[in-house]
From TrEMBL, chain A:
Name of the gene this protein is made from: madM
Phylogenetic placement of the source organism: Bacteria, Pseudomonadati, Pseudomonadota, Alphaproteobacteria, Rhodospirillales
UniProt protein name: Malonate transporter subunit MadM
Source organism: Roseospira marina
All copies of domain Malonate/sodium symporter MadM subunit N-terminal, residue ranges: 9-253
Pfam families according to UniProt: MadM
Keyword Cytoplasm: no
UniProtKB/TrEMBL annotation, chain B:
Pfam short name (any one): MadL
Regions that span the bilayer: 7-27, 33-51, 63-80, 86-109
Organism of derivation: Roseospira marina
Domain of life: Bacteria
Gene designation per UniProt: madL
GO cellular component assignments: membrane
Matches recorded under InterPro entries: Maln_transptMadL
Protein's recorded name: Malonate transporter subunit MadL
Keywords carried by this UniProt record: Membrane, Transmembrane, Transmembrane helix
């Protein structure tokens, strides 16, 4: 009996995910409106609910993909995966005005370069402070402080230990989750209120998922500008951190 | 037809990814550099052209707008499949490195955005001067 009720949910995992996300969003919107008097946007609450589900899923299954490792919720892997994420991000660019984009271009590029330097320095300094003082580990964890993809790419290129690579991934995941949660609260104070600032923010944070969720919960109109610069960050980081970043760290600490 | 909009979006994504991949190849890494960003630029330019020529029907537009509207739900699903446990259990080093980068980032939004505004003004001044 229970099996025949549950069967359709397992058979159509993506449809199940649509339903569950719809329910989460509905509850989050009601809570946001009535519970917090619109001070916290419903999307922010929905995203935090998602993160809590991910924690519960990870704890119960021991897997790496949050709630998607629970078979009932396996559709989350597809719905929240890179393909749909990128497809929807690109769609948000529809209706963006070219003039706004041009204005955002230069600050975005400056932010991108500044941020990669800063992330590498912060990561490398943290690495040094915790006793990983060789330039390979410092560059790898510095890469992780950029994004959780730059870290392992750097580590693999330089031959870092698997422990250090795991730490670099964790640093990147902490960063992306912190960006998701903190953005709606810090947006006003940090001046994140217009397209140029959003492009700068995207270049500074770099984590596509963090920026995507952070802006969605702050002001959906800003999403395309932030996403545009953020999507260049990881690729640029994979290029610069293992080469230039490592060479500089090696010269200073090698 | 709604599918025209969806197909337009798909074409932008695929062409953007190919160009991103080629850009990666050109600088010697096997990764896609800014493919999504390139795709967004193509969509902005192409949809503007098509709208000007009135070649994009309301139905076709809704094919793109649907996916744009699905963005936040997709982000909720994405949040639910992150490795949150690993982030919590990784210990102090990961937190210091990750959070340090985030906070410095927030501090820099205003100065860099302001820097760019000044740049804009000098640019327009130069343009006006050349006229």
């Amino acid at each position: 009996m229970i099996d025949s009720i549950l069967h359709p949910f397992m058979k159509y995992p993506l449809v199940t995910a649509f339903l569950v996300v719809g329910l989460i969003t509905w509850v989050a919107m009601v809570v946001g409106k009535k519970g917090t008097n619109n001070r916290i946007h419903g999307s922010a609450i929905a995203i935090v609910c998602g993160l809590i589900l991910a924690y519960v899923g990870g704890k119960t299954t021991g897997g790496k993909h949050g709630i998607a490792d629970v078979s009932f919720f396996s559709g989350f892997a597809l719905m929240g995966g890179g393909m749909f994420r990128d497809f929807a991000i690109i769609a948000t660019a529809y209706g963006v005005r070219m003039e706004e984009l041009k204005k955002a271009g230069l600050p975005g590029v400056i932010a991108l370069c500044t941020s990669l330097v800063i992330a590498t320095v912060v990561g490398a300094a943290a690495s040094y402070a915790f006793g990983y003082t060789d330039p390979v580990s410092m560059a790898t964890i510095g890469g992780g402080a950029a994004t959780f993809i730059v870290g392992p790419v750097t580590g693999a290129a330089l031959g870092a230990s698997s422990e250090v690579i795991a730490l670099s991934v964790a640093a990147g995941v902490v960063k992306s989750i912190a960006v998701m949660i903190l953005t709606p609260f810090l947006a006003k104070i940090a001046g994140l209120t217009n397209p140029s600032a959003a492009a700068v923010y995207g270049g500074l944070m770099g984590s596509t998922s963090g920026v995507a969720a952070g802006l969605a919960a702050t002001d959906p109109k800003l999403v395309p500008y932030g996403a545009l610069t953020a999507t260049f960050y990881t690729g640029f980081g994979c290029l610069v951190v293992p080469s230039l970043g490592y060479m500089i760290l090696n010269a200073l600490f090698g | 037809m709604v599918i025209y909009g969806v197909a337009l979006l798909s074409a932008c994504m695929l062409v953007g990814t190919i160009l991103g991949q080629l850009l990666g190849l050109a600088v010697g890494i096997n990764a896609n550099i800014g493919g999504v960003g390139i795709a967004m630029l193509i969509l902005v330019l192409l949809s503007q052209k098509l709208l000007d020529k009135e070649m994009l029907s309301k139905a076709a537009e809704s094919g793109v707008q649907f996916w744009s509207a699905m963005y936040i739900p997709i982000v909720v699903a994405m949040a639910a499949r992150q490795n949150v446990v690993a982030a919590f259990d990784a210990g102090a080093l990961a937190f210091v490195a990750g959070l340090g980068a985030v906070f410095t980032g927030f501090l820099l939004i205003r100065p860099i955005a302001a820097l760019a505004k000044n740049g804009d003004e000098t640019e327009t001044a130069v343009e006006e001067g050349s006229k």
